[in-house]
Amino acid sequence: MTDATMPASTDLNGTADERIRQLSEADPTALQSAEWLLRQLNGALSAWAADETRLDIDIESRVDY
User: What is residue 57's predicted lDDT score, i.e. its pLDDT?
Assistant: First the structure.
């Protein structure tokens, strides 16, 4: 984003680092709705779960049975 402020309706997206950057650029005085916060939390947790699954699969593929 080129603008230093993020509208309340804009969802965070991208990698964890990109989401952190977007969040740091958001206007701290603009209150976000509970629905927006829930969407961001669900998105982050879904991405985290997908990463964990990929890591588990990668680890299991390296185990000698």
Answer: 92
